[in-house]
Amino acid sequence: MKSAQEDEYLEFVAARAKALHRSAYVLAAGDAHLAEDLVQETLSRLYVHWSRVAGADSPEAYAQTVLVRTFLSLRRRRSTGERPVGNLPDGATSGPDTALRLTLLDALGQLPPRDRAVLLLRYWEDRSIEETARMLRLSSSAVRSQGTRALGRVRALLGDSLSDLVPH
């Protein structure tokens, strides 16, 4: 890679790495190590194809698409692997929404990977139905129906516990 392209790539990484990590954390349902692996794999794929990425209309959207597809392909390939023995956070967390966040991440972790990806793109990243469909290679109607079903599953998993955690 030429020096100018490498500088451009490094600027992109500095500007977008945190946002990619937040999205990866949601996709990984709170597994910080998996989120780091997803971001690292995404950034390495972007580096290899940086000339194409830099020429895209929106390198940020391109990176988000690579992240989601990396997550989905990893979930398909990962028939065996590490299994956590408990759901322990990496460090101490505090704040009014800690219990709410952990409850939501636990519920997301119980969804299939594609449902999680649809919810991330539609509601976390606030992408349009058409953009989500294009990123996941689905039809718009499939995104709508899958999103509706996924939200229904999250609501069923949370039951009344969510209302107890939301401050009034």
Q: Tally of extended strands? A: 0
Biggest sheet record: none
Distance between the terminal alpha carbons, to the nearest Å?
54 Å
Radius of gyration: 17 Å
**Number of discrete helical segments:** 9
- Which class of secondary structure composition applies to the elements? mainly alpha
Whole-number mean pLDDT: 84
Structure explained in plain terms:
- It is a single chain.
- The chain is built from 9 helices and no strands.
- It has 168 residues and is mainly alpha-helical.
- The longest helix has 25 residues, at 3-27.
Can you summarize this structure?
This protein has 168 residues and is mainly alpha-helical.
List key phrases describing it.
globular; mainly alpha; 9 helices; 168 residues; single chain
Layout of helices and strands:
Elements: H1 3-27, H2 32-48, H3 50-54, H4 59-77, H5 98-109, H6 113-124, H7 129-136, H8 140-158, H9 161-165
Helix pairs in contact: 1-2, 1-4, 2-4, 6-8, 7-8
